[in-house]
From TrEMBL:
Membrane-protein topology: Single-pass type I membrane protein
Membrane-spanning residues: 1136-1157
GO biological process: axon guidance; brain development
Lineage, uppermost ranks: Eukaryota, Metazoa, Chordata, Craniata, Vertebrata
Ranges of residues in domain Fibronectin type-III: 626-721, 723-820, 825-927, 931-1027, 1029-1123
A Pfam family assignment: fn3
Keywords: Cell adhesion, Cell membrane, Disulfide bond, Glycoprotein, Immunoglobulin domain, Membrane, Repeat, Signal, Transmembrane, Transmembrane helix
Biased segments, Basic and acidic residues type: 1166-1186, 1193-1204
Signal sequence annotation: 1-25
Record field: compositional bias (Low complexity): 706-715
Region (Disordered): 705-724, 1166-1274
Organism encoding this protein: Erpetoichthys calabaricus
Gene: NRCAM
Subcellular locations according to the entry: Cell membrane
Protein name, UniProt field: Neuronal cell adhesion molecule
């Protein structure tokens, strides 16, 4: 269709003036409340970005929101054709919205939904369209496999290590790190380029390393890809000498760069040379923009932000060292995507009115402008005789009601586009006033006054102003009526005070509004502070007397040296003065008095000089005398004025007066603080509450303290009134499934404002078309609405009422009736056993309507029914794990291998657990066994040793046998060859023959299942020869077996009976040795209360019983295990454990009674006899439950060394005494981190279990995540 452009192509000022007049006439403020009731074409209010990169792991949400009246309908196109959302079950459009949600969580492919999307919102008045939204899937591809050759280069030469990251969407962030996830240090010699490569201007020998690793971080998918490590070896046999700089990047003498307006410009120059060159930048065609220019990467990168066309030109970088310099010039060209000069604005026109849509944009190249109407190219739309189309404007004249439409302006060039919707809405609306009625304007005399009168109407109303009851229109001096309807008075005078009426008129009617103007007197300081000289410790008073308009509240503020007054009680601010007592040198300075009202202020200043004080006789200070002569004046319903005469201050100036009141009606004989006034005032204007019988008294306060209260004033009764406030802290929630409880904080007696206080409680079900149900209650703070549906929203409010009427309009609150337990259990529960200690559970979510409350999540209850090693059922107590409400699967960690488990799943809301799903049974597969319950060496002979053991407590499967490895240890504690022996699973002892006599052997012993070997126990034994005692007392081997928060110390000792004690301390600390005495004659002791993961020093001391001689062992070092997480199930809460403890306590009580009876008879009781006969080793604490996840088990090494503490030794003659107790450090070990050197200090971990100890499962730990480590650096 041939477009008509009448009157838009001719030049000249008449056309420009005509367009400006049109634009000005249509600049009308629109109140959303006004527009709510008007018909309106659609307007796009929210949409997704033009280039929308999606995360393939999440659902795709494409935003499109619009408003209009009637409510718009939405449709979409994809790649230019209609996109039928109903035909794709994965695509859902939100109700009352155009936003698309594409569900890919159940197997959908995100790349199948890539493309160009556009949303349309239409109603009967037009169609608005969104931008073209390009949907692309984010990608983080793997690095291509490549075999990297090591770089072997001479010292002093340059080198570039390529990164060449995979191309991702969006592009990745590049950084270089080493094998330990530490950032590689960079400097002006070594730095990373913009392309990610690592540049060495010259190499040094210390650059040699094999772990130069380039990482690419894809932020959108939160993944990191790693290139293969690059090895660099720098040789120094033929170093490269000093040389002039040359550029590594860019190459050549000139290059060019294209950048778009508004983007960030980055220019890079990296040079090689020796010494390392320095880089400098300049702009050949002008100065660098200082506020926008930044240097990065050790001056090698020039960055200019918010680029404009002025930033185009030639930039020169210079690389320089003492041997010479080199230049490179980069020509920067700035192009521009379109940007708005005049974006089209919505037009609201009356029939037969004229208007214009302007669409002007700039860019480089210059954008082309195209118009659409209701989403269709305007040349294909129906012809409209009221519309004239130009390149960048559409002029409407003599519009009709059917001229309403939405117009789209598209400004585009090769670098982008702009799309703007602007509607033309033809309405016939009588005038409406948008300015609040009866608004009060206050101005200072002789200053301008501006009275607002914002109007809305179609056609645009004409505004006229009238003063008081005069019929004449205000026009001409001193009045100015602005285009937006506001009335301005240049120089306001007292006579200008009064009532002003604005009237808006158009051909459909008129509207008017009344505002008020008050012209006030200005504030003036009539007695200003003056320069003062005062002696130290004296008192100074600065006067500041102010005259102001009595109807305005006056505030006087004092400053010292332009800052707030010091927080010091010596500074007293009075009504007309500032008093400073006990003056010091620091009080010198400038003091400023600022007199403020809500409309203006006045300022005055004065200096203070402090001089030395002359001696004065001592002054006696005392409490002030009470005030007297209380008088009530200026009586009003809500206020009164109280005056009094101060008592003597007794040489300490009165700092303040405290005014108290008694309510003779509601709270007689009780005095309450009402207010405080400064010590210089003797009058107070008091604000009162209705329906109170007031009596007042005044108390004086000085530095010494408070005076006695004055005599009470006469009683003043205020009349009653309707309440001023409603209850606060109003809440609504259900306590039962069928009720709704409304509570509030009741008003006090003084807040009631009158007799007959009641509360009007109103409620109704939300989103149901019904009126509020109302009830009035008194003397309560709670009301229960019964027989409510379960968990539905209610609107409610509480309003106060007394005999004088209701209180203010209350706020409407929203709450829910009570929850009930979920009705149904999760269905389709499936269990997938991942390994011997981990299972994953899946279930289907419960329907939302069955929750009957707020869904908190899902809880899995599970318990071990029996071990597959045993036929007998053994219920270990139920455990539970809670999962988020949005999850339909979860993992159960810490399961025991080779066991039969049962579980069920329940939905959980605020009321509690719902019904369980049917029990699911599953079995965990075999795992590696735990360590044998104990291992000990018995029956030593000259050439044989017998080993006895008990099978592991946690077999975790069917035992296939035991493996014993052993080796001899010579006198220097060196280890001999390691021998290995396989023992059948049904054996619990084994005798080793043909051993060397008088030789110490170390044994490593573990069980195994079909899944592999378990944890090892270690033990030592010695073949014997004729027993010979050492000639002198001495210590032998001292062992330490650390756990998490305790360690077992055992030792060998030869000599007469001694008292032993242990000394220990944290290594490298300044604390004193801690001492623990050993009970009896035993040769082991448990140190408790240690800090996990801490290294300690320890030694054993033997002290003579009679001669007080002291013998010390050598010092040893051990480290406690790191703290481990506890299991989900707390054993202390298990019923069987509580019952067992009660039985043990009862048994101990019976034994104590028997022992007490025997002791009184004078005989030895059996326990004592046993203690005398044998020194029992100290009972060890039970090992804590292992709460780590089974799938990440970390087993102790089978060949783990176990050597004595540093400094321990055997007797000098080489003989070894066979002790009564074979206990050693190994019996109590839990795999600590203590290590021994070959001379006896710690070198290895210990692992073992004492015979009487019941071991739990294997220790485990979780390896640190390299991705987490890398994220902490980037």
């Amino acid at each position: 269709m041939q477009l008509k452009r009448r009157g838009l192509t001719s030049g000249g000022s008449p056309l420009i003036l005509f367009m400006c007049q049109l634009i000005a006439a249509l600049d009308v403020p629109l109140d959303p409340k006004i527009l709510e009731g008007l018909q309106q074409p659609p307007t796009i209010t929210h949409q997704s970005p033009k280039d929308y990169i999606i995360d393939p792991r999440e659902n795709i949400v494409i935003q499109c929101e619009a408003k209009g009246k009637p409510t718009p309908r939405f449709s979409w196109t994809r790649n230019g054709t209609h996109f039928d959302t109903d035909k794709d079950s994965r695509v859902m459009m939100k109700p009352n919205s155009g936003t698309l949600v594409i569900d890919i969580s159940t197997g959908g492919k995100p790349d199948a939904y890539e493309g160009i999307y556009q949303c349309s919102a239409r109603n009967e008045h037009g169609t608005a369209v969104s931008n073209n939204i390009v949907i692309r899937q984010s990608r983080s591809p793997l690095w291509s496999k490549e075999k990297l050759q090591p770089y072997i280069v001479q010292e002093g030469s340059s080198l570039v290590l390529p990164c060449r990251p995979p191309v991702g969407l969006p592009p990745p962030i590049i950084f270089w790190m080493d094998n330990y996830f530490q950032r590689l240090p960079q400097s002006n010699r070594v730095s990373q380029g913009l392309n990610g490569d690592l540049y060495f201007s010259n190499l040094k020998v210390e650059d040699t390393r094999s772990d130069y690793i380039c990482y690419a971080r894809f932020n959108h998918t939160q993944t990191i890809q790693q290139k293969q490590p690059i090895s660099v070896k720098v040789l120094s046999n033929s170093p490269v000498g000093e040389r002039r700089p040359t550029f590594l990047v860019p190459t050549g003498q000139n290059s060019s760069k294209l950048v778009l307006r508004g983007e960030i410009l980055k220019l890079e120059c990296i040079a090689e040379g020796l010494p390392t060159p320095e880089i400098h930048w300049m702009k050949e065609s002008g100065e660098l923009p200082i506020k926008k220019t930044f240097y990065e990467n050790f001056q090698k990168t020039l960055k200019i932000v918010a680029v404009t066309e002025a930033d185009g030109g030639s930039y020169r970088c210079t690389a320089k060292n003492h041997l010479g310099l080199i230049h490179h010039t980069i020509k920067v060209t700035v192009k521009s995507a379109p940007h708005w000069i005049n974006e089209p604005k919505n037009l609201i026109l009356a029939p037969q009115e004229t208007g214009i849509l302007l669409c002007r944009a700039n860019g480089n190249p210059k954008p082309s402008i195209t118009w659409l109407m209701n989403g269709i190219p305007i040349e294909n739309s129906p012809d409209d005789p009221s519309r004239n189309i130009g390149d960048d404007a559409i002029v409407f004249s003599d519009v009709q009601k059917d001229s309403s439409a939405v117009y789209q302006c598209n400004a585009s060039n090769e670098y982008g586009y702009l799309l703007s919707n602007a509607f033309v809405n033809v309405l016939a609306v009588p005038p409406r006033i948008l300015t609040a009625p009866n608004h009060l304007y206050q101005v200072i005399i002789s200053r301008p006054a501006l009275l607002d009168c914002l109007t809305f109407g179609s056609p645009v109303p004409k505004v006229q102003w009238f003063k008081d009851n005069h019929a004449s229109v205000l026009d001409g001096e001193p009045y100015i009526v602005h285009g937006n309807g506001s009335l301005e008075i240049h120089v306001a005078q007292k006579a200008d005070s009064g009532k002003y009426t604005c009237v808006g008129i158009n051909e459909l009617g008129k509207a008017e509004n009344v505002v008020h103007l008050e012209v006030k007197e200005s504030v003036r300081i009539i007695a200003q502070p003056e320069y003062r000289v005062v002696q130290k410790a004296g008192t100074v008073v600065f006067e500041c007397r102010v005259k102001h308009d009595p109807s305005l509240e006056l505030t006087i503020t004092w400053l010292k040296d332009e800052n707030s007054l010091p927080e010091d009680e010596r500074f007293v601010v009075g009504k007309d003065s500032l008093t400073i007592t006990d003056v010091t040198e620091v009080d010198e300075g400038t003091y400023t008095c600022i007199a403020n009202t809500s409309l203006d202020k006045d300022i005055a200043r004065a200096e203070l000089t402090v001089v030395a004080a002359t001696p004065t006789p001592p002054i006696i200070y005392d409490y002030p005398d009470p005030p007297s002569d209380l008088e009530l004046t200026d009586e009003h319903e809500r206020s009164i004025q109280l005056t009094w005469t101060p008592g003597e201050d007794n040489n300490s100036p009165i700092e303040k007066f405290i005014i108290e009141y008694e309510d003779g009606l509601h709270d007689p004989d009780v005095w309450h603080n009402l207010t405080e006034v400064p010590g210089q005032k003797t009058t107070a204007h008091l604000k009162l509450s209705p329906f109170v019988w007031y009596s007042f008294r005044v108390i004086s306060v000085n530095k010494v303290g408070r005076s006695q209260p004055s005599s009470p004033s006469r009683q003043y009764q205020t009349p009653g009134a309707a309440p001023d406030e409603n209850p606060i802290i109003v809440k609504g929630a259900g306590s039962e499934p069928d009720n709704f409880v409304i509570t509030w904080e009741p008003l006090t007696g003084i807040q009631s404002n009158g007799p007959g206080l009641q509360y009007k409680v109103s409620w109704r079900q939300k989103d149901v078309n019904e009126e509020f149900t109302t009830i009035k209650v008194a003397n309560v703070s709670k009301y229960i609405v019964s027989a409510t549906p379960t968990f539905v929203p209610y609107e409610f409010y509480v309003q106060t009422i007394n005999d004088f009427g209701p209180g203010p309009e209350p706020l409407i609150h929203v709450g829910h009736s009570g929850e009930d337990l979920p009705m149904v259990a999760p269905t389709n529960v499936r269990v997938h056993v991942e390994n011997s200690t981990l299972a994953e559970v899946h279930w289907d979510a419960v329907p939302a309507k069955s929750v009957r409350g707020i869904l908190k999540g899902y809880k899995i209850y599970y318990w071990k029914e029996r071990s597959l090693n045993k036929r007998k059922r053994r219920n270990t107590g139920k455990s539970s794990l809670m999962f988020d409400k949005n999850k339909t699967h979860g993992k159960l960690p810490g399961l025991e291998p080779f066991s039969h488990y049962v579980l069920n799943v329940r939905a959980v809301n605020g009321k509690g657990d719902g019904p369980p799903s049917p029990d699911q049974h599953f079995e965990t597969p075999e795992g590696v066994p735990g360590a044998p319950a104990f291992l000990k060496v018995t029956d030593p002979t000259l050439d044989s040793l017998t080993l006895e053991w008990s099978p592991p407590v946690h077999r975790n499967g069917i035992l296939t046998g035991y493996t014993l490895r052993y080796q001899a240890i010579n006198n220097t504690h060196k280890l001999g060859p390691l021998l290995e022996l396989v023992i059948p699973a049904n054996e619990t002892s084994w005798t080793l023959k043909n051993l060397n006599y008088s030789t110490r052997y170390k044994f490593y012993f573990h069980a195994q299942t079909s899944k592999g070997p378990g944890s090892s126990l270690t033990e030592e034994g010695v073949t014997i020869m004729d027993e010979v005692r050492p000639s002198e007392p001495e210590f032998g081997i001292v062992n330490a077996s650390p756990a998490e928060d305790f360690a077992n110390i055992s030792w060998e000792y030869w000599g007469p009976y001694k008292n032993f004690y242990i000394e220990y301390m944290v290594e490298n600390s300044e604390e004193d040795w801690k001492k623990e005495f050993v009970n009896g004659t035993q040769f082991s002791f448990v140190i408790k209360g240690l800090v996990p993961g801490t290294q300690y020093k320890v030694r054993v001391v033997a002290k003579g019983v009679t001669d007080e001689t002291v013998l010390q062992s050598a010092e040893g070092i051990f480290k406690t295990n790191p703290a481990m997480a506890s299991r989900q199930v707390d054993i202390a809460t298990q019923g069987w454990f509580i019952g067992l403890m009660c039985a043990i306590a009862l048994l101990i009580l019976v034994l104590l009674i028997i022992c007490f009876i025997k002791r009184n008879k004078g005989g030895k009781y059996p326990v004592k006899e046993k203690e005398d006969a044998h020194a029992d080793p100290e009972i060890q604490p039970m090992k804590e439950d292992d709460g780590t996840f089974g799938e990440y088990r970390s087993l102790e090494s089978d060949t783990e060394d176990h050597k004595p503490l540093k400094g321990s030794r055997t007797p000098s003659n080489g003989t070894v005494k066979k002790e009564d107790s074979d206990d050693s450090l190994v019996d109590y070990g839990e795999g600590g981190e203590g290590q021994f050197n070959e001379d006896g200090s710690f070198i290895g971990q210990y692992s073992g279990k004492k015979e009487k100890e019941t071991a739990e499962g294997n220790e485990s730990s979780e390896a640190p995540s390299p991705v987490n480590a890398m994220n902490s650096f980037v």
